[in-house]
Amino acid sequence: MKSRRQFLSELGISAAALPFVAGLPSLGYANQGASKKRLIFVCTPNGTIPKDFWPDAAGSEFELKRIMEPLAAFKDRLLPIHGVDNKVRGDGDNHMRGMSCLLTAIELFPGNIQGGSHTPAGWASGISIDQEIKNHLQKSEATRTRFGSLEIGVEVPGQADPWTRWVYSGPNKPVAPINDPYQLFSKLYGQVEDKDTLKSILDDVREDLKRVRSRVSNEDRHLLEEHAEFVRAMEKELNNDEKKKLVVPAPELAPGVRTDNDNIPELSRMQIDLMVNALVNDMNRVATLQYTKSVGQARMRWLGIDDGHHGLSHEPDSNEEAQEKLVKINQWFAGELAYLMQKLKDTPDPGTSGNMLDNTLIVWTNELGKGNSHTLNDTPFVLMGGDGFGFKMGQSLKQNSIAHNRLYLSIANAMGHEIETFGKKELCDGGALALS
């Protein structure tokens, strides 16, 4: 059987058109067959407010607390797991280990980066679970995609240290997220050299797309037009709306250029839209979405909160005003997860009768269990999405202080990667969690 790329080449399709057509099922070639499983990790920082986050009861009769109320419409798609701990010890403070050991589940190397009151440390000594799963999927023609994974950020500072990086391609190899939606757009749809005089990518591939339309189903024609309309809107925004133009990514900022703290709500939606569009185009099966950073001082002025997020998280439980502000901040994060879930639900899954949410697993987590005590116990983990991963959604689970390594074994297995250990091997005793 010819590969999808060979088929498109015979049609005379240029490389510029591939992002728009590579995931269309009615071409009937590579990457078809079983429903595609997709995986998204989302990190929001500085801990949560346990009494307003964790359901009181286990089982299917649980009630959502205030922080997760924005997700009420998706309650039957949620699986909060209380009692999962980051048990990785060693060098570094809890913020450093909370962030850089969150997805790697293994110690930090010794180093000279000084945190709080603990010893200094370096980068993580192992690969992160998202990259482990990505590498597994990329080994097979049936699951290989153009990018494999996308690492996306929302106002993640440019400085590289263990507080800002949670994705690792290997030991001592942190991966920086793409923080600028326009840079992400360029990665997905072609290099944009001059934003002020950007020529429409669609103009260059119009004839290519016309040829493809004649060979695909009516459903795919509709999907193809949705992709094209999305890109047209992004191009219009790039060209015509000066107010919405972003500063260059943080590592390239000249001294004195302000950050985009006040643009976080808009940046979040743009990044989510791009991420979902990449997934539906089958450019990748794995993605990470990171909001700000550990010890991040984002100021949520759009919520009427001028205080820095990290500073608020250090206030004692007795400070009721600070507690209410933190609940409001975490509710906003939950609302962004609800937007992501709704976007996936509203997007047909090519080649299936369902939607993207049916075959997507989202893992919402945090680098700390509780900000003011810097605890790594009861780390927030909420699984969200479809039932096709072997997990029973629509219930609340309570575990007895189990290592998050074991949760990652369950997720990897659900994605078809049958590993028995991940991260620090000694923390994998007991094997994968049963989440059915």
Compose a concise summary of this entry.
This protein is 30% helix and 12% strand.
Number of helices: 11
Oligomer designation:
single chain
Strand elements, count? 9
Largest sheet: 7 strands, mixed
CATH topology name, in short, is Alkaline Phosphatase, subunit A
What topology, given as strand order, has the largest sheet? 3-6-1-7-8-2-9
Percentage of β-strand residues: 5-15%
Describe this structure in words.
- The protein has 436 residues and is an alpha/beta fold.
- The chain has one domain (33-180, 246-428): Alkaline Phosphatase, subunit A (3-Layer(aba) Sandwich).
- It is built from eleven helices and nine strands.
- The strands form two sheets. A seven-stranded mixed beta sheet has the order 3-6-1-7-8-2-9, with helices on both faces.
- A hairpin with a 2-residue loop joins strand 4 and strand 5.
- Helix 5 runs parallel beside helix 8 and helix 8 runs parallel beside helix 10.
- The chain is globular and about 65 Å long.
